[in-house]
Write a structure and sequence with these properties.
heterodimer; A: 2 domains; two-stranded antiparallel ribbon; B: 389 residues; alpha/beta; three-stranded antiparallel sheet
Chain lengths: 219, 389
């Protein structure tokens, strides 16, 4: 009754089927494309060609939505292939696990080697507020974040809320994670507009693996 | 003494006052939401300010267990820890004695609990309770009292009353921050007017900044309840705040205010929200009920809160049966209702009309309970226009 209808594109991990499905849906009278069946076990390596098999065969004028790509690196793969809309439960799972996103959002060239190796086995992408190391941490989740949670509350308080099973913990984490994740998408849009998305993607992926390289060197 | 209490208006025994505390200047009568573990379930401090919350109650027993009063102190006190700029009140941990009695042992020294976290024995003495509360840093702290249920009888009540007086002296001696935190004494004595009178006089002698009426709201009949409140408010000093602990239902607050009480706390509004029940002028509205499925009206068309302005009963019905958001929205509305009730009491005590308006909405058929009529009689408020008999 007056809403937009998106056509579904499936095909599993089969490049030929993906291509065939996309070509068939492309000639139908739909307002956009919903790409399904990703994030269900295909590897990071095989995903780009599967995505391209779809998007190469879709008209450029209509939006492409994908379900199941949540990790920032996965989102970047989707964007690189020409996807416009992303839907996933990534933020929800982070929040209920007690995690908060911390990966840097700014795109300025920085020598980011001040990363400190820590005992918790975490990285620069997210922290788990349940960790006892945060019991007395009176700093916000991300220092210059302007979300409600970071402007008003400390890691120590959220750690306490998680320990005593209070609902406010999830509320505060969800606010921050949503804000941070949406900020990531804003960075992507800016990079695309400035014509440097490819570098953005490359640098982002590299920096997330740096801590592993640093760990190897220090052993 | 770290407060100022100024009566701004009266109607017989009822008073509208300004209670100035270190962190906030409050208007009484007022209701204090209970934020046991350093949070009001599901609401942000922003939202609490938005709905006009003035004082929040934190519980010494729970906070001492997690995250511990030492940690709170190290991080600058509970106000800073939870980022609440207005007033805080901590209770002594005493009420848990009554609720966890099968695990507790009460002696002259103090109360032994079994820690629910790790099973270790915990001893809460008057001194320890005050030290914990000093570390937490609330504007008002409560003396550790020996509280007994009003439903029991016998010599235990008298023993508890006298012990409460002895413990109050130990609390006063242990209190290290009298210029920043106000120590309130708690009147005990069960339902026995003689014991209550002794306790009131004993506490008044100690010249405390404020007084609470304790040991009620524990299952006693309403008729006994209001009589104890009436007796205590009549005997407590005019120029100091009076806090009826654990009260309660909106009707109880209206009656106690008519009798001259100023402060209240209760888990009822937030707890009932988590069961899907909203507070409305007519009484309660059960959002889980099937009748709500297609009801596109707000919870209360006369309510100005964010929930009533933005959500329908039908939507909330969907949520309360499935999602934590439902109880969060209902908590917001219910607290707004209680705080609006407080504001209305404050602003209309001088006029005296409010009681009748309130009773007419809650009892449109005029079936006001007898205990309420008796209490209003003593309070000197004419409610004949609301009663059918």
């Amino acid at each position: 009754a007056g809403g937009a209808v998106f056509g579904s594109i499936v095909g599993g991990s089969n490049i030929e089927e993906r291509k065939r499905c996309a070509q068939e849906v492309a000639v139908r009278n739909v307002s956009g494309y919903w790409i399904g069946g990703f994030g269900l076990g295909e590897s990071m390596e095989e995903r780009p060609s599967l995505l391209n098999a779809v998007t190469d065969n879709l008209p450029k004028d209509w939006p492409r939505m994908i379900c199941g790509l949540g990790l920032p690196e996965e989102v970047l793969q989707g964007v690189a292939a020409g996807v416009d809309l992303f839907d996933s439960a990534y933020i929800y799972h982070l929040t209920i696990g007690g995690f908060a996103l911390t990966f840097p959002l700014d795109r300025t060239e920085k020598n980011d080697y001040n990363y400190q190796l820590s005992d918790q086995g975490s990285d620069r992408t997210k922290i788990n507020l349940r960790a006892t190391v945060y019991r007395k941490d009176a700093t916000p989740i991300v220092e210059d974040c302007c979300c409600y949670t970071c402007q008003n509350h400390t890691k120590a308080y959220i750690n306490h809320l998680l320990n005593v099973h209070e609902m406010l913990a999830q509320i505060l984490l969800e606010i921050h994670n949503t804000h941070h994740y949406l900020g990531f998408f804003r960075s992507i849009r800016e990079a695309i507009k400035e014509g440097c998305f490819e570098q953005f993607q490359k640098k982002f992926v590299q920096s997330r693996r740096e801590h592993l390289a640093a760990d190897v060197v220090s052993v | 003494m770290a407060l100022r209490f100024e009566v701004l208006g009266r109607f017989n025994r009822a008073r509208a006052a300004q209670l100035t505390l270190p962190h906030f200047a409050c208007q009484t009568p007022l209701f204090m939401p209970v934020g046991t573990q350093g949070t009001i379930k599901g609401l942000t401090t922003d939202q609490l300010e938005e709905i006009g919350c003035q004082i929040i109650l934190g519980n010494t027993y729970h906070l001492a267990l997690r995250p511990t009063s030492e940690l709170i102190d190290e991080l600058g006190g509970l106000h800073k820890f939870m980022n609440w700029p207005r007033a805080l009140l901590t209770d002594s941990g005493g009420f848990q004695m009554v609720s966890l009695l099968h695990l507790a042992d009460i002696t002259e020294k103090g109360v032994t609990f079994q820690s629910p976290v790790d099973g270790k024995p915990m001893l809460l003495t008057p001194e320890e309770s005050i030290q914990i509360q000093n570390r937490i840093g609330a504007d008002i702290i409560m003396a550790l009292d020996d509280v007994v249920r009003t439903t029991i009888t016998g010599p235990r009540i008298e023993e508890a009353m006298y012990r409460t007086l002895r413990w109050v002296d130990r609390c006063i001696a242990a209190h290290k921050r009298p210029h920043e935190q106000n120590l309130f004494g708690i009147v005990q004595g069960g339902l026995d007017p003689v014991l209550r009178d002794i306790c009131v006089r004993g506490l008044v002698d100690r010249n405390l900044p404020g007084y609470a009426i304790g040991g009620l709201a524990g299952g006693e009949d309403k008729d006994s309840f209001w009589r104890v409140v009436a007796q205590c408010t009549a005997a407590l000093p005019e120029d100091k705040p009076r806090y009826v602990m654990g009260v309660g239902y909106p009707l109880d607050i209206v009656v106690c205010s008519a009798l001259g009480a100023d402060m209240y706390d209760c888990v009822y509004p937030t707890r009932t929200a988590r069961f899907g029940t909203a507070l409305v002028p007519e009484g309660v509205l059960k959002l889980k009920h099937n009748a709500m499925v297609n009801d596109t009206r707000p919870i209360d068309p006369t309510c100005a809160c964010m929930v009533c302005k933005n959500y329908t009963r039908a939507y909330i019905h969907c949520l309360v049966t499935k999602d934590a958001m439902g109880s969060q929205l209902l908590s917001y509305h219910n607290l707004y209702y209680m705080l609006q009730l407080s504001r209305n009491l404050h602003s209309s005590i001088v006029e005296g009309r409010f009681v009748c308006d309130f009773l007419q909405k809650m009892f449109p058929k005029g079936d006001v309970p007898e205990w309420v009529c008796n209490a209003m009689d003593v309070a000197g408020i004419d409610i004949s226009s609301c009663c059918s008999s």
